[in-house]
Amino acid sequence: MLFEVFKRPTKGIVLKELILKEINDLIIGSLGITAFIALFMGAVVALQTSLNLDNPLIPKSLIGFAVRQSIILEFAPTIISIIMAGKVGSYITSSIGSMNVTEQIDALKVMGINPLNYLVFPKVIAMLFYPFLIAIIMFVGILGGFLAAVYGNLVSAQDFIIGIQDNFVPYQVLYAFIKTMVFGMILATLPSYHGYYMKGGALEVGQASTTSFVWTCVTIIVANYILTTILL
Amino acid sequence: MIEVKGLHKSFGDETILDGIDAKFIRGKTNMIIGSSGSGKSVFLKNMLGLFKPDSGEIIYDGELLSEMDGDRQKELRENMGMLFQHSALFDSMTVEENVMFPLRMFTKMRRRERQERANDILERVNLVNLNTKMPSEISGGQQKRVALARAVVNKPKFLFCDEPNSGLDPKTATIIDNLIQELTHEADITTVIISHDMNSVLEIGETILFLKDGIIAWEGTNKEIFKTENEAVTDFVYSSELFRKVRIAQNKGL
Ligand SMILES: Nc1ncnc2c1ncn2[C@@H]1O[C@H](COP(=O)(O)OP(=O)(O)OP(=O)(O)O)[C@@H](O)[C@H]1O
Ligand SMILES: [Mg+2]
To answer: Would you call A110 and B48 a contact, using CB atoms and an 8 Å cutoff?
Structure first.
């Protein structure tokens, strides 16, 4: 399937429009909900760390450190990708699946258009912008932690910022973005596959979306483990 | 011209097409008739390459479909128009965008020209003022006509229509039948129409194939179909009360 996606490309100008539409649907359309979740997750990490910090020898700046590490290493790339599997993953499966059962894909084939290129390639390209979304999420998550910590009087703003800068390893950010790219490609292709190769009617479209969500999550979680083993 | 030779197709152990030989002639409206579930749509989808035949050959103007490479097939397909039984309109596009789609993909026309052509053709299928509606906002019969407009807008050399007038009132159905016939004669294209509407058969059945039990059980023209003694055909044709009455009247010499 992956090979087919890049074969017999669609006319350039049409493709450009399709890509812009997918960027809008998949990336920009997800910004609101993921940022909202990130803001509160950052806040909760700050609260939790603070609540579990009863040893006076450990500096308060650890709160900032904990927020930064958990948001950048796992929350933004992995957990947000799982949320995306629910949001854009099932959207992709159901939209391609319903085109499948209503013969719209056959209509493309009859016209000599490669449906995999027409439908999936723009999604793959749009997901190249996924790291930008995740970068924003990282910022918003840490901001959430900062607001909760400072306005909840858990730690002073200075200490939190010291914590954020503490023991900063740029490679970890690279690691996070490599993961993000891989998860982005999984999000673009696996749900497309489930929609494209499903058979049946409207009921099966719903089932395909559910199956696709489960498999996308499992794949992301396993890939996360493998990538972490290799990269760190 | 399209030729079909020894076409077989089964799903599991259910044989749908059991050795079909047929010719579809250029410049004529070629009809495939047969009862519901007899395999008409499956036959058409095999001709279009949407299903892979178990055996047999599909030949477009002397060229085997199975031996065309990707580029050649793409070229052929740009010259094909297909009206699907359930319309298969792109539901993320408006009526107008659906009709303009083939022009957009395969011609260098500007937007204005595309729009003009789309409007012309929408007028010919008797649809005006629906341009900006989505497919889900129009009726089934209207969807059918949009799908026909999309199928013919890029002046195909091969036109396939799966029940073009099912779900249409008799007057609109006649308009559509006549349009398909006109386009076929005007542009000298090869047209294949599936139908079980006896009115259409009578009107535009220039060649007729009767599909039954996986084979072509009868073939002829609309002049011949009402005279044949073939029991399967008469059974099919005169299951309509109206045609039975006409037949009785004919026999009485009225
Ligand atoms: N994709 C498929 N998989 C399995 N069986 C199929 C498939 N498509 C069609 N069939 C079977 O092939 C037979 C013929 O179906 P087809 O759609 O060609 O009928 P038809 O002659 O077009 O009928 P109608 O006039 O109602 O449209 C049916 O019994 C159907 O169950
Ligand atoms: Mg049918």
So the answer is: yes
Instruction: Evaluate: CB of B13 within 6 angstroms of ligand 1.
Output: no
d(CA A61, CA A161): 8
Side-by-side strand order, sheet with B80-83: B80-83, B158-162, B190-194, B29-33, B207-212, B215-220
Ramachandran bin of A206, using left for φ above 0, alpha for ψ from -120 to 50, beta for the remaining angles: alpha
CA distance A212 to A80: 17
- For the segment B246-253, the average pLDDT, to the nearest whole number, is 76
Q: A216 is written with which tokens?
A: 């996308």
Q: What is the pLDDT of residue A193?
A: 97
pTM for this one? 0.92
Residue whose CA is at the smallest distance from ligand 1 atom 30: B37
Q: Based on the number of CB atoms within 10 Å of its own CB, is A118 exposed (0-12), middle (13-18) or buried (19 or more)? A: buried
pLDDT per residue as tens digits for the range A85-108:
999 999 999 999 999 999 999 999
Q: Which residue of A has its CA nearest to B90?
A: A104
Please name each of the domains of chain B with its CATH number.
Answer: 2-79+158-251 (3.40.50.300), 88-155 (no CATH)
Task: Please give the angle made by the CA atoms of A104, A119 and B116, to the nearest 5 degrees.
Answer: 65
In degrees and rounded to multiples of 5, residue A199 shows phi and psi of: -130, 155
Instruction: Give the SS3 label for residue B8.
Output: strand
What is the number of structural domains in chain A? 1
If phi > 0 it is left, if psi is from -120 to 50 it is alpha, else beta; for residue A35 that is: alpha
Instruction: Give pLDDT tens digits for A196-211.
Output: 999 999 999 999 999 9
DSSP structural state of residue B67: G
Domain that holds residue A114: 2-231
Q: Is B22 helix (H, G, I), strand (E, B) or coil?
A: strand
